[in-house]
Every structure is written in C-alpha cells, then in structure tokens.
Amino acid sequence: MALITLENVTKRYPAPTRGGVPLVAVDDVSLEIEQGDVYGIIGYSGAGKSTLVRLVNALEPASTGRILIDGRDITALPERELRKLRLGIGMIFQQFNLFSSRTVRGNIAYPLRVARRPAREIGSRVDDLLSFVGLTDKADAYPEQLSGGQKQRVGIARALATGPRILLADEATSALDPDTTQEVLALLRRVNEEFGVTILVITHEMDVIQSLATKVAVMDRGRVVEHGDVFDVFSRPREDASERFVSTVVRGVPSPVELAALRERHPGRIVTFSFRDGTRSQASVFVTLAESGVGFELVYGGINDIRGRAFGHLTLALTGPDASIDAALDRIRESTDVTEPGRDGGA
C-alpha cells in the first residue's frame, strides 16, 4: 500500500468576480507515493504545486477526490483528528518561517512543546537534531544571526522534531545560492536514507529533482501530465511540459535554426547520437569513428547523470569519405540511436 495516495483530487476556488469562472488550481490528480520515496512535484509558477502540498497536509480541503495517508482518508477527518495527523507530517518552506523572537533551540523545540512532550524529552530531542543538522554551536543564536543555509537547516530540524514519517519541502532551496542548495539537498538525502522519511519535494528547479528525487510528477495548469522514475521522465520525456523542463538542464537535439547555424560554422556531416543507460558509451562511439578513419568535432549537446545513470545527446560534425562515415554509423546504430538531419527524413 502506498503511504500517500491521491485519487482524482481537484481543488477549486470561487470565481474572483461575480458570475466569473471558478479557479481550478488542482485538476483531477491521481498519484501514489511509496514509503521511502523522494518524490518530486515540478512545474512552472501557477501549475498547482503548492496547492497540492497544502492538500496533502490538510491545510486546505480538497473540492473532490480522496487523499489517503497510510490508507486513511484525510478528506473525511474532523479537525481534531487532522491536528494529530499533522504531527506525522513535517514541512519546510522557501522563506524558512522561523520565529525571530526564539533562538535556534527554541525554534526546534516549538512543535514538541505544542505536542506537550516532557521537558527532558524535548531537551534530548533538540540536542540530537542540532547535532544532525550541524548547528550545535548555534543553539543559542537567533535567526537574524544565521545565514540562509543555516536557517533552512533549522527549518529541517524543526520539521523533524516530532519524528514525522512524511516531510513536505515547498521550494525549500529557491532562496539559496547554488553551493548552499547542494548542502541542503545533501542533508535531505540523509533525512531520507538514515531516518526513512518519505519526502515530497515541490520545486520549479530541475537541478533539485535531478539531485534528490527518485520519482517525479510534472504538473501543468493543475494537472499531472507525466510521472514516473526520474531517469525515465528526464531521458525520454513524452509531454511538451516535461520536454521544456528537461531542456533547462540538458541540451537536446538542435532545432532547425540551430542546425542551420551549425552547418554554416562546421564542415562535414552533422549527426546526433542519443545516449541512454544501457546503450553504447560515448567513448565507444568515438573509438568506432576513429577506427573508421572519421574525423569528429563536438558541436552541440551534453550528457547528464542521475544517480550513476547517464543520458543525453551529442551532436558531432563528422569529416571524411562518405563511405567511411556510413560504415561507422551502421556499426554505431546497432546499439545507439543516431539521427542525421537531411538523411533521416529531418531538416
């Protein structure tokens, strides 16, 4: 059984003007998130990502559909039961949402005090979490004395205070610089691996999904248009929305305009080789070209890596006798996708 299940979930808001059309923020979404997943929800601004996460922790009610947490339908629970449920769901935010009047220790202890845990238990738990996030020396500091990365680590520690099974991260790295982002993502990986916490990551940043998530759903205008294993969605996106996101981290096959520019700048035949986990490696393609007496120059594209699995496209300008190039490409096609615009029915 999935830990989190969404069944045909829709969230509508009233029309902003009298006689207007209601706003559909989440539109008939169905997903299953397994225990231990790091599940990314990605989409541009307005896609419905943040609304979806508010539905999962019942901060807002769904208009239609069911949301099950560990088999329990939270859309049917009274507020008193929902408060108990939320103790098992931690949340971290883009702008940290720390209490400026409380120290680091006080911020982390807050949810434990709300849950009325014994003082000795609170002290011990806070000490453990301070050590886990690397902020023991900042226990008595106030948020204004911390860097952005340190604030987010406090936010993570606070979210973990009650020992949740689920952690919701809503644009948790958007306010951080690239180096600090990687530090926070590494900490979230430890949360998942060491504590077994299931993480739902809401973001518009493909790099975050690539670095952290095991599975991903792509949202567009309130709907989930594609979902699955991160590697599968990234390496072979089926939908335009997914393709747009993938193109932000991996340069694909050149467009007709780019292709024309490449032909003006580079002699020879322009050929694209597409790589995916389990296909011939880039190095073996280069070796085959060289053994066939074919010259080559990399002119476009790139290769990406997700948890040790590579994919991407390399476009080369090949020089040499056509017979030699054709023979080399025939050998390479046995294990690698090869596209040659103008000869394969393209531009």
TrEMBL record:
Gene3D superfamilies associated with the record: 3.30.70.260, P-loop containing nucleotide triphosphate hydrolases
Keyword annotations from UniProtKB, A to Z: Amino-acid transport, ATP-binding, Cell membrane, Membrane, Nucleotide-binding, Translocase, Transport
Signal peptide start-end: none
Any one Gene Ontology BP term: amino acid transport
Any single Gene Ontology cellular-component annotation: plasma membrane
Source taxon at top rank: Bacteria
GO molecular function: ATP binding; ATP hydrolysis activity
SMART domains, alphabetized: AAA, NIL
Presence of keyword Cell wall biogenesis/degradation: no
Function: Part of the ABC transporter FtsEX involved in cellular division. Has ATPase activity.
Subunit structure: Homodimer. Forms a membrane-associated complex with FtsX.
PANTHER family on file: AMINO ACID IMPORT ATP-BINDING PROTEIN, METHIONINE IMPORT ATP-BINDING PROTEIN METN
Family: Belongs to the ABC transporter superfamily.
The protein's name in its UniProt record: Methionine ABC transporter ATP-binding protein
Organism in which the protein naturally occurs: Cnuibacter physcomitrellae
